[in-house]
UniProtKB/TrEMBL annotation, chain A:
This is Tungstate transport system substrate-binding protein. Keywords: Signal. Residues 22-250 form the PBP domain. It comes from Salipiger marinus. Residues 1-22 form the signal peptide.
TrEMBL record, chain B:
It comes from Salipiger marinus. Residues 26-222 form the ABC transmembrane type-1 domain. This is Tungstate transport system permease protein. It comes from the Bacteria. It is a multi-pass membrane protein. Its main location: membrane. It is found in: Cell membrane. Keywords: Membrane, Transmembrane, Transmembrane helix, Transport. The chain crosses the membrane at residues 32-54, 61-85, 97-118, 155-181, 201-222. Pfam families: BPD_transp_1.
Length: 273, 235
C-alpha cells in the first residue's frame, strides 16, 4: 500500500511537470544570447503573443550551438547573427528563407589603464594588431558563436594569428558573451562584444568602449524559419507568422523602440516590400 | 566587498516581495528535483538493497561502476539526454525536449547512481549485523531487502537528501535539456547562470542565497519529521 501511494505521488509529480508544457500554439526559437540577455525578447514577445496568441519560447545559446540545435530540428525559428553560416543553413535545406532583421555593431571594450593604447581608435584591425603586438590580454569567446566568428575574421584581416598566443595573452573562455565579459574584466583584458550586450551588462567596473565605429564591426542579425521538409514537426505556420511579424513595419518599429538608458540597442533593417 | 551586503538585502527583498516570477522558478526547481529524487529512490533503493545482499560473479566490478557513476558530470548527462530527446533523436517523437519532464529525466539519471551506491553501503553494513538472524528465520531475499530498507529508513532519508541536494544544485544538465526558457523551464540554477552572464552579480548571488535557504528549509523539515526516538539523546 505504501508502495502504491509512493508510485502515485511519483506519477503525480511527473504528470504535473508533463502537463505544464502542453501548449499547442507555442513555437521554439533558437536564438543568440545577445538578443535574449539584452532584454529585447521581454519587450517584443508580449506584443507578438498579444496579437497572435502564439506563445514564443526562447532558448538562448551561442550562434554555433543554436544552428546545430536547429539542424537537429529542435527549433521552429532560428534567430542568430552569422550571415555566412546562416546562408549555409538555408542552402543545405534546413531553413526556408533567411531575412535580414536588424543590426547593431561590435565594439572592443577595455580597462581604463588601456595597456595596449587602443582607446579612441576606430580601425578595428589596427587596434587588434596593436593589442597583439603589446601582448595585452584579450579574452575571446572561443565558442564558435557569431561574435567569435566575427572576431576571428577581424584577426585574419589584421594579419595576426591569435592561436600562437593562446593561453598566453589570448585567452579563449569557451563560454557565452556575459561569461566572457566577466572573465575578461576579471583579468584586465580586452573583449570584443556586441553593443547590445555591453549596454545591458551590469558588471562593467572601470571598463569602457575602447574601439568602435569601424564598418567592419557591423553586426547583422537574421531570422530563418526551419524547413518542414527537413523537420516535419516544425510548426511552420506559426514560425512563419513570427518571422513575418518581426520584419513587418509593426515588428520593426517595436525593435527600434527598445532602449536601455535612452540608448537604442538594435536597428531594424529588414527589406520592406 | 559590497556585492555581498547588496546580495543579502536583495535576497531578503526577493523573498519578502517575491513576485510570481521568483515563486514560479522556486516552484519548478522543487517540482523537478523532488520528482527526480522520488523516481531515483524508487529505482536506486531496491537496486542498492539487491546488490547489498546478493553475491554473484562480477559484483566487485558492479560496485566500482556504481561508485564511479556518482561522479557523472551533469553536462554529460544533459548532452546524452538531449541526443535522445532531440527531435532528430530516437525518442524525439515524444516531444519532451525543453520540458520539465526532460529535466526530471536528466536529474534522475544523474542521482540514481548516488542513491544506489550510498544505500548499498548503508544496507550492506546493516545486513552484516542481521545476517544470522535472517538466516535463522529463513527469509526470502525480497523479505530481507524489505526488512533492511525499513530498518535503515532513517539513514536512507539522508541518502535521499544527498540525491536531492545534487539534483537541485546542478546546472549543466537542466541547462541543456531544459533550455532555461522563461516561464517554462527556468529553475534556480539556470536563473543564477543567466544573471551571472548578464553581469548582475548581486541578483545572481541573491538567488543563490534563496536556493541555499530552500535547502535549509527542506533539510529542517525532514529533520523535524523524524521521530524523537531517532534523535541522539543529549545528556
Amino acid at each position: 500500500m505504501l508502495t502504491s501511494r509512493f508510485l502515485t505521488s511519483s506519477a503525480l509529480v511527473l504528470g504535473l511537470t508533463g502537463g505544464a508544457m502542453a501548449q499547442d500554439t507555442s513555437i521554439l526559437v533558437q536564438s543568440t544570447t545577445s538578443t535574449a540577455n539584452s532584454g529585447l525578447y521581454d519587450h517584443l514577445l508580449p506584443l507578438f503573443t498579444e496579437k497572435t496568441g502564439i506563445q514564443v519560447n526562447v532558448v538562448a545559446v551561442g550562434t554555433g550551438q543554436a544552428i546545430q540545435n536547429a539542424q537537429n530540428c529542435d527549433a521552429d525559428v532560428l534567430l542568430v547573427h552569422a550571415k555566412p553560416a546562416e546562408e549555409k543553413f538555408v542552402a543545405e535545406g534546413y531553413g526556408t528563407q533567411r531575412t535580414d532583421l536588424m543590426y547593431n555593431d561590435f565594439v572592443v571594450v577595455g580597462p581604463e589603464a588601456d595597456p595596449a593604447g587602443v582607446t579612441g581608435m576606430t580601425d578595428a584591425e589596427a587596434a587588434l594588431a596593436k593589442i597583439a603586438e603589446a601582448g595585452a590580454l584579450f579574452a575571446s569567446r572561443g565558442d564558435d558563436s557569431g561574435t567569435h566568428k566575427k572576431e576571428l575574421a577581424l584577426w585574419q584581416a589584421a594579419g595576426v594569428d591569435p592561436a600562437t598566443g593562446s593561453g598566453d595573452w589570448y585567452r579563449e573562455t569557451g563560454s557565452g558573451m556575459g561569461a566572457t565579459l566577466n572573465a575578461g574584466i576579471g583579468m584586465g583584458g580586452y573583449v570584443l562584444t556586441d553593443r547590445a550586450t555591453w549596454i545591458s551588462f551590469d558588471n562593467k567596473q572601470d571598463y569602457t568602449i575602447a574601439v568602435e565605429g569601424d564598418t567592419d564591426m557591423f553586426n547583422q542579425y537574421g531570422v530563418i524559419p526551419v524547413n518542414p521538409e527537413k523537420c516535419p514537426e516544425v510548426k511552420i505556420e506559426a514560425a512563419q507568422d513570427f518571422a513575418d511579424w518581426l520584419v513587418s513595419a509593426e515588428g520593426q518599429a517595436a525593435i527600434a523602440d527598445y532602449t536601455i538608458d535612452g540608448q537604442q540597442l538594435f536597428f531594424p533593417n529588414a527589406p520592406q516590400s | 566587498m559590497h556585492t555581498f551586503t547588496e546580495a543579502f538585502s536583495l535576497a531578503l527583498a526577493l523573498i519578502l516581495t517575491g513576485g510570481s516570477d521568483l515563486y514560479q522558478i522556486v516552484g519548478l526547481s522543487l517540482q523537478v528535483s523532488l520528482g527526480a529524487t522520488l523516481v531515483a529512490c524508487a529505482l536506486g533503493l531496491p537496486l542498492g538493497a539487491l546488490v547489498a545482499i546478493a553475491r554473484f560473479r562480477g559484483r566487485n566490478l558492479l560496485l566500482i561502476v556504481m561508485n564511479a557513476l556518482m561522479g557523472l558530470p551533469p553536462v554529460v548527462v544533459g548532452l546524452l539526454v538531449y541526443l535522445q530527446l532531440s527531435r532528430s533523436g530516437p525518442l524525439g517523437f515524444l516531444g519532451l525536449l525543453y520540458t520539465p519532464t526532460a529535466m526530471v529525466i536528466a536529474q534522475t539519471i544523474l542521482i540514481t547512481p548516488i542513491i544506489a551506491a550510498l544505500s548499498r553501503q548503508v544496507l550492506e553494513d546493516l545486513h552484516g549485523e542481521y545476517a544470522e538472524q535472517f538466516r535463522s528465520l529463513c527469509l526470502r531475499p525480497a523479505q530481507v531487502m524489505g526488512a533492511l530498507l525499513w530498518d535503515g529508513r532513517h539513514a536512507l532519508l539522508t541518502v535521499g537528501l544527498a540525491g536531492f541536494g545534487r539534483a537541485v544544485a546542478e546546472v549543466g544538465a537542466v541547462m541543456i535539456v531544459g533550455g532555461n526558457i522563461d516561464h517554462l523551464t527556468r529553475v534556480m540554477t539556470t536563473a543564477i547562470a543567466l544573471e551571472t552572464s548578464k553581469g548582475d552579480l548581486p541578483l545572481a548571488l541573491a538567488l543563490g542565497l534563496v536556493l541555499l535557504g530552500l535547502a535549509l528549509v527542506i533539510n529542517g523539515a525532514v529533520q523535524a519529521l523524524r521521530p524523537a526516538a531517532q534523535r541522539p539523546v543529549h545528556v
